């Protein structure tokens, strides 16, 4: 029933008309600190079970939490990068619930007074359009431990290494209107976090994960009842989960049913969401201010110091790339996605043709890496070597076609392009006398075609160019070939 | 403001008990409800004071929240951490299955 070909992303065609999605995201970003939010145990990933646990994390009686200054700084830095209001006084609350991997019986979080208030970011969509997504708040909180359920038939195994690791929860406004926008929003947040170094953004290791609030409505109507899909750890899953959840809601509503506000899980094997065991009173967290912690206060001048040290952020960098290198805004938005891309590009394009460099990097290099299943950091081609290739094309040493041959050799051998050109004798031939020799041969071999051409069959000109190029093994300068052939065939 | 004598009733006590994972015998519930109402009623006297223009007070000592630098100086004490656990295995706490 869904004719998706004519529908806008985020729209669903139902029996009763077109439905629109309303989406809000809560992103949990692990702060890149060495130690935990309230204890001096290591926050590193992948250690032996319960190695990175202090008596504070294990919630032994009488232990007191002491906050990590670096984590506070990262939250403020992130708030500034999200153009958000920084709250110089914020409060920590206890969020009470019982679970085996939460030894305290509560999570220390921020409820009524978060460290960062409203902000907004600009999100780049695939069609080159931009949209602004509002930020509701950002607060600091503790992560929970990890439960392993597959080690024993009747027991769960608990590892508290992650317990108490610092998280920032970044809550968007319900401004997102399609799964694709949600994906682009997460990408942008991740990119900003990596630029400022507040979080490594590694979704596979769980450093960045998202809860998605999804509801549907007819255009112009009030928001519908929402469901929350928990703990999605890849952009692809976020997009799939939102689409499938919205379709599920439309099916229910069109059959005359109502949506229960509930928490759902995304099953990656079926591509569908399912209800979590219905938790009675699950949302009765009985928040109250943590009596172990005074309000968190800092001065405006401390905030200003952090602001001055902020690195250049993707949006401003993008504008600068367009201005300095003359590339399109779309190419620039791809290049600023990752700090590593921009650094590579700026080195490769420095003093060279910016557009040509961007094309080679985005089309050829990214394409080749994807084909060989390599990450960007594993690229066999360095920024220096790509830059050198661009120079060889720009100064006419090799043609664009030969450049592709050199490029694939660079991917294989990691050699510099000038080395490859020299070894294989690939220099472009631009010398008139050498090219004239080739032209003469082509003319004498194809006398019949020459006669046809001279009697008015203009289309044959391309044939002669092709023959000369072939004879030169692709090395003849096509511009020179064109010019000389025209003179010759007058 | 509800009548201070009936701030909580038996269903509320049941709910709080469930949220706190406390098993309260049926015979004690009536008394417990009365006790809670007495305590809350006593505290409710504070509602008579007009605090609409008063900022919430976080501390009477005037201390500020202390901050620590981001150093790893704790942990590596898994034996100590697991010492009181009724059951453990290869460094993990072992508990009755809690999967949903």
Domain unit count of chain A: 3
Number of strands of chain A: 17
Tally the helices of chain B: what do you get? 3
Low-confidence stretches of chain A: none
Question: Strand sequence of the main sheet of chain B, in spatial order?
Answer: 2-3
Mean of the pLDDT scores of chain A?
92
Number of helices of chain A: 15
**Rg from Cα of chain A:** 30 Å
Rg of chain B is 22 Å
Coarse morphology of chain B:
flat
Task: Characterize the structure shown.
The complex is a heterodimer of chains A (490) and B (100). Chain A has 490 residues and is an alpha+beta fold. Chain A has 3 domains: 294 residues, no CATH class; 113 residues, no CATH class; 57 residues, Arc Repressor Mutant, subunit A (Orthogonal Bundle). Chain A has 15 helices and 17 strands. In chain A, strands 1, 2, 7, 8, 11, 12, 13, 14 and 15 form a 9-stranded mixed beta sheet that branches. In chain A, strands 6-5-16 form a 3-stranded antiparallel beta sheet, with no helix packed on it. In chain A, strands 4-17 form a two-stranded antiparallel sheet. Chain A is elongated. The model of chain A has no long low-confidence stretch (mean pLDDT 92). Chain B is α+β, with helices and mostly antiparallel strands. Chain B has 3 helices and 3 strands; from the N terminus they run ααβαββ. A two-stranded antiparallel sheet of chain B has the order 2-3. The longest helix of chain B has 18 residues. Chains A and B meet through β3, α1, β10 and β17 of A and α1, β1, α3 and β3 of B.
């Amino acid at each position: 029933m869904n004719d998706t070909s004519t529908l806008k992303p985020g729209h669903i065609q139902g029996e009763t008309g077109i439905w629109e999605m309303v989406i809000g995201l809560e992103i949990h970003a692990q702060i890149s600190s060495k130690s935990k939010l309230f204890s001096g145990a290591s926050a590193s990933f992948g250690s032996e079970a319960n190695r990175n646990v202090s008596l504070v994390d294990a919630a032994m009686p009488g232990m007191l939490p002491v906050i990590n200054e670096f984590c506070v700084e990262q939250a403020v830095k992130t708030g500034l990068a999200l153009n958000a209001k920084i709250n110089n006084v914020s409060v920590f609350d206890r969020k009470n619930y019982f679970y085996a991997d939460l030894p305290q019986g509560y999570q220390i979080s921020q409820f009524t007074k978060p460290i960062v208030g409203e902000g907004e970011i600009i999100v780049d969509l695939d069609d080159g359009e931009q949209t602004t997504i509002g930020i509701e708040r950002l607060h600091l909180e503790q992560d929970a431990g990890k439960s392993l359920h597959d080690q024993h038939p009747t027991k769960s195994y608990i590892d508290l290494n992650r317990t108490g690791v610092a998280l920032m929860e970044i809550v968007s406004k319900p401004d997102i209107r399609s799964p694709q926008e949600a994906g682009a929003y997460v990408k942008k947040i991740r990119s900003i976090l990596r630029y400022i170094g507040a979080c490594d953004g590694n979704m596979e290791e769980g450093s960045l994960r998202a809860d998605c609030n999804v509801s549907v409505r007819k255009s112009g109507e009030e928001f519908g009842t929402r469901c929350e899909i928990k703990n999605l750890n890849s952009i692809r899953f976020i997009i799939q989960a939102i689409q499938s959840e919205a379709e599920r809601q439309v099916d229910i509503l069109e059959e005359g049913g109502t949506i229960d506000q509930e928490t759902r899980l995304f099953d990656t094997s079926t591509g569908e969401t399912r209800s979590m065991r219905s938790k009675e009173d699950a949302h009765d967290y009985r928040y109250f201010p943590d009596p172990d912690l005074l309000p968190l206060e800092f001065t405006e001048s401390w905030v200003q110091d952090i602001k001055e040290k902020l690195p250049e952020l993707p949006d401003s960098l993008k504008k600068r790339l367009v201005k300095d290198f003359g590339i399109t805004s779309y190419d620039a938005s791809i290049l600023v996605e990752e700090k590593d891309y921009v650094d590579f590009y700026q080195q490769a394009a420095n003093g060279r043709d910016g557009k040509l460099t961007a094309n080679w990097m985005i089309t050829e290099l990214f394409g080749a890496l994807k084909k060989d299943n390599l990450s960007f950091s594993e690229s066999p081609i360095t920024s220096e070597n790509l830059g050198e290739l661009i120079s060889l094309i720009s100064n006419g040493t090799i043609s664009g076609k030969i450049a592709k041959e050199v490029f694939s050799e660079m991917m294989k051998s990691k050699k510099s392009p000038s080395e490859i050109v020299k070894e294989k004798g690939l220099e472009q031939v631009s010398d008139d006398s050498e090219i004239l020799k080739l032209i003469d041969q082509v003319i004498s071999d194809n006398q019949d075609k020459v006669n046809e051409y001279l009697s008015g069959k203009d289309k044959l000109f391309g044939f002669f160019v092709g023959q000369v190029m072939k004879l030169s093994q692709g090395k003849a300068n096509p511009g020179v070939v064109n010019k000389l052939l025209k003179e010759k065939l007058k | 403001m509800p009548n201070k004598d009936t701030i909580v009733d038996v269903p509320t006590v049941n709910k709080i008990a469930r949220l706190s994972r406390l098993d309260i015998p049926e015979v004690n519930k009536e008394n417990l409800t009365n006790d809670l109402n007495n305590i809350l009623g006593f505290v409710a006297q504070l509602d008579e004071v007009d605090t609409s223009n008063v900022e919430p007070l976080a501390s009477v000592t005037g201390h500020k929240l202390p901050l620590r630098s981001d150093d790893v100086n704790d942990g590596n004490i898994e034996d100590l951490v697991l010492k009181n656990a009724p059951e453990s295995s290869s460094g993990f706490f072992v508990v009755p299955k809690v999967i949903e």
